[in-house]
Amino acid sequence: MPRVALLALAVGLALADSSVVTLGLPDVLGEFRSSPPAVAWVLTGYNLVLALAALPAALIVRRAEPGRVAAAGLIVFAAASLVCALAPSLGVLIAARCVQGLGGAAVACAALVLLEAASGSRIRGAATWGAAGALGAALGPAVGGLLTEGLSWQSIFFLQVPVALACLLALRGAPAPLAEPPGDARPDVRHLAGLAFVGAGLTAALFLLVLMLMAGWRLSPIAAALTVSVMPVAALAGGRLPGGDARVRGATGAVLLGGGLAALGLLPSAHVAWTAVPQVFVGVGLGLAVGALTEAALHGRSPLVVHGGWTLAARHAGVVAALALLSPMFNADLEQQEDRATQSVMARLLDSRLEPGTKLSVGLRLADELYGPTNEVPDVAPAFAGVQARGEDGARLEELEDAIGDELDRAATTAFRRSFLVAALLSLLALVPLLWPAGRGRP
């Protein structure tokens, strides 16, 4: 049904924005000449406002016409997207992202009621709403990376304007909301807590992985986007697995998510092929856990939109908490590994059997790359590209370049290890509220 598809697109668009600009952050950093902690607010600002605005937006939807709230949210989202694309400074970009969060909260909450009415079923509407949000968040980095590489990071936001306005078509002649059946008005604290921990794992899976690929392994945005495309495909497959008890599916998803994140933290080498299987576990885990926990948090609750607001608040609170915890952690580890790798690289150069002239030329070029201002593992290929060496000296130079490249790749992989393992622990903490006896601690 076109209306259902457009409403699902609106939800996916709003929740994809929690991660869509991740692969564009290095370009944002370079353009505005800022610091990584400041640029991180391009992500944090949106998720923080969405988490804080979700419940108020749900209360407004309950008291006003959902179609009008959705229309206002889409227009605000589109306008803020245009400001993001044209932002002359980082401050303006972050402020516009916060306004986007307000629009996104209104869209996501109103769409839940509209999907319920359009599908004619409370259960089908909630399932479509949860699946659209999970898939949008998982697809965000890949889509953003492709646009950043093909055009620019600004194109991410330019594209959102017509997409958001096109979703307004779903509001024409929308059916009246279904009558609310009796239900428990209290939030389901157990499943909301599980959803918050899964949200933290989602952040790590998307944010840390793409940063490791780009800042650590020096992949281009399009190469990183293609690499992380495994995750949304697996998430889509996970969301389509046969149903059953929501708590069991949620717990299974949390275990798969935690296992995949732990595997990313223990990669044996810096090669994208090693990330494929962990991404499958992460994606399937997300597809299972987000859908199941959202479904469980809404089941038997009334009014539906208010509890939908609670799920958004819980999920994105987990995202913000993970960004706040993990960002300084991996930044510190990356700096530490860069220092160690720099010392090791220079030691390899001094111990090499290169001719003195070749060694001096390479050393000067390496110093420019290794000690220059950088927020990522340096690319030393330019240091070797202009060096002339012949015969055995040329072969030794190639061996040294390969050895140094391996050294830097190991340093980058190690730099993200602790953050991935902490993220895996956060995901597994979702098991605590999910496995807590049903009669205890129930709200």
Could you provide a short overview of the structure?
This protein has 443 residues and is mostly helical. It is built from 19 helices and no strands.
Q: What report would you give on this structure?
A:
It contains 19 helices and no strands. By secondary structure, it is mostly helical. The mean pLDDT is 79.
According to DSSP, the number of beta strands is: 0
What is the percent of helical residues? over 70%
Unreliable runs: none
- Class inferred from helices and paired strands: mainly alpha
What about the largest sheet? none
How many helices?
A: 19
Question: End-to-end span in angstroms?
Answer: 37 Å
Mean pLDDT: 79
CA-atom Rg in angstroms: 24 Å
- Share of residues in strands: under 5%
Shape: elongated
Please write the string of helix (H) and strand (E) elements: HHHHHHHHHHHHHHHHHHH
Kindly list the characteristics that best describe this protein.
443 residues; mainly alpha; 19 helices; 77% helix; 0% strand
Task: Please render the helix and strand layout as text.
Blueprint: H1 2-16, H2 25-32, H3 36-39, H4 41-63, H5 66-86, H6 90-119, H7 122-150, H8 153-166, H9 189-216, H10 221-228, H11 230-239, H12 246-265, H13 276-298, H14 304-351, H15 356-370, H16 381-385, H17 391-415, H18 417-428, H19 431-435
Helix pairs in contact: 1-6, 1-7, 4-6, 4-14, 5-6, 5-8, 6-7, 6-14, 7-8, 7-10, 7-11, 7-13, 9-10, 9-12, 9-13, 9-14, 9-18, 11-13, 12-13, 12-18, 14-15, 14-17, 14-18
